[in-house]
Every structure is written in structure tokens, then in C-alpha cells.
Amino acid sequence: MVTEYIDDAIEHESQGNLHLAIDCYRKALEGLEKTGTPIDIASLADKLGNLYETLGEIIFAEQYYEAALKIFKSVGDHQGIARGYGNLAYISETRGDLRRATAYYQDSLSIYMDLNDQQGIATTYGYLGIICKKRDKLSEAAELYQKALKINQELDDQAAIACQFNNLGNLHEMSGELDQAEALFLKALEINQSIKSDWGLADVYNNLGMVRQKRKDTEQSIAYYEQALNINHKLKNNWGVACQYNNIAEVFVLQLQFKKAHEFYNKALSLFENIGAKPEIEEVQKNIADLIRIEAEKSSGT
Predict the structure, then answer these.
(1) How far is residue 132's CA from residue 236's CA, in Å, rounded to a whole number?
(2) What are phi and psi of 215, to 5 degrees?
(3) 7 Cβ contact partners less than 8 Å away, ≥ 6 residues apart
């Protein structure tokens, strides 16, 4: 029965029916807890955490990640332990707890270095770079992204190379260097199109939208954001969907389409609240307050 449940889950997952996949994986996990090995149980718990994370249900994701990590520790599976720390780091990052996220990522990096796992090292450098970017430590972020990119190029990991082009482009975009940012994003776009990576394409369309938004090219900006939105809907990535709602609302503000802006900000806020993404909730609430202020100024003619 366990094998049948897993087969059904894989089929549901391939069709984008993640809730049905979760139901089947949970039934499989119940069976494995009676007859399976600890590694099998931990691996399936880890998988369930991944699916809940994709859906933005981080409370459930964290529960499964913690359960998996506990088992990996008990059997001395260092790869599993490193992955578990990385998973919990991402949960902490989503909640805005960057200090805890950094500690988890550093624990993960230390293990990958002991194992000489180059892919794990590169991936964790990239994640630590993102944390530095969120703390406005852009030079440290750039150094970490370059370390990741060098390893990715040595491994010829095209998806990861595209990811680092995206990350480096973000730093240029934050610094106002839009030409350099767009050039890197277009490199990432070309790779993601060639390897047909929906996750990668969603990220790069989002980033190209940001560049066009800063250039006040609102029509092209919305076009890019809508491409990212459609892919995130397809992936059932609620966090990504919420980000695009927020981005599209910002462009509507630039176009003085205030009613549409309110609509999309409220959609974003609802999803972020369901996810429990504290930094994003605060950002959207600030955006709504700014919008109300702008509306009042326009109404009074100031």
C-alpha cells in the first residue's frame, strides 16, 4: 500500500494537485512509520515539508522538516542533517528571523564543507548571499554570489548558474545600475528558457518586471509580472503569487489606477497573512497606507 500511495502522490504532484499529493504522501508516511526504515521515514517527512513550503503553509512545513531532521540526526545522516538545517533556515527567513536563518545556513554550510559537497556548498553560499542582501550588506552578498557562481560553473549546473545571474542582477538593480541588472537577468532568462525551468522563469520575469518598473515602462513591467504570476499559479507557489499581486499593484499606483491597486494589494496581503510571512505583510501594509495617502493628496489637489 505504501508504494501505491507514493505512486499516486507522484502522479498528483506531476499534475499540480499538491493537496491531493500531500494526502497520499501522508498515508504513505503512516505506513512507513510501521514498516519502513528511519531514512525512508525522514525522506518522506522532508518531502511533505517541501510541498507544504511550496503551498506557503510554513507551520506544517516546519513541523515535517523538524521531524525529518530529528531522524537524520538520530541515524547520523549528514547529508540529511545539512539539508534539514537549510530547510529550517528558509522557514526562519520567510518569517523574517534573519539571525536564526543565518545560523541554520552556516550549520548547513559547515556540514557540506566537511562532506566536500560542492553543490551543497554553492547552494548555501547563494542563500547566505540572499540574507546579506536583505540586510543591505550588498558587497558581502556579491562575494557570496560570486563564490556560488564559480562552483556552479565548474559543475556546469545551468539552473544554478542562472540563479546566480539573477542574484547578481538583483544587487545591480538595488544599486540603480539598471543596464547591468537587465543584462544579467536576460542571461538568466536565456538559460531558464533553454532548460525549461518554470521556477527560474518565474524569478527572472519578476526581476525584469522590477527593472521595467524602475524605468517607468509600466506596460512592459506588468507584462513581465503577469508572466511570473501565471507561472507561480501553475506551480501552486502562493508566496510567488502574492509577490506578483503586490508588484502589479505598485505599477497600478504609478498608472494612477488606484481601485485596481487596492484590489491587488488586498489579494497580496491575504495570501501573505495565510503564509505568515511577516516582512511581506508589513511591506504590503505600508504600501496600502502610502496608497491611501496618495489618493488623499490627489483628491485635495496637493
Answers:
(1) 28
(2) -85, 0
(3) none
**34 grid coordinates:** 510501521
- Hey, how many other C-beta atoms are within 10 angstroms of the C-beta on 51? 20
Q: Which residue has the cell 504590503?
A: 284
Cell of 173: 538593480
**Cβ proximity of 204 and 192 under 8 Å:** yes
Lookup: cell for 241: 503569487
Angle at CA of residue 84, ends 238 and 71, nearest 5°: 120
Selection from 174, 246, 243, 248 nearest residue 218 by Cα: 248
Query: What is this structure's pTM?
Result: 0.85
| pLDDT by residue, tens only, the chain of 302 residues | 899 999 999 999 888 888 999 999 999 999 999 999 999 999 999 999 999 998 889 999 999 999 999 999 999 999 999 999 999 999 999 999 999 999 999 999 999 999 999 999 999 999 999 999 999 999 999 999 999 999 999 999 999 999 999 999 999 999 999 999 999 999 999 999 999 999 999 999 999 999 999 999 999 999 999 999 999 999 989 999 999 999 999 999 999 999 999 999 999 999 999 888 888 999 999 999 999 999 998 887 65
* Distance from C-alpha of 219 to C-alpha of 22, rounded to nearest angstrom: 38
User: What crossing angle do the helices spanning 158-174 and 118-134 adopt, rounded to 10°?
Assistant: 20
Cα–Cα distance, 17 to 236 (Å, whole number): 8
Cell of 297: 493628496
What spatial distance separates the first Cα and last Cα of the chain, rounded to whole Å? 69
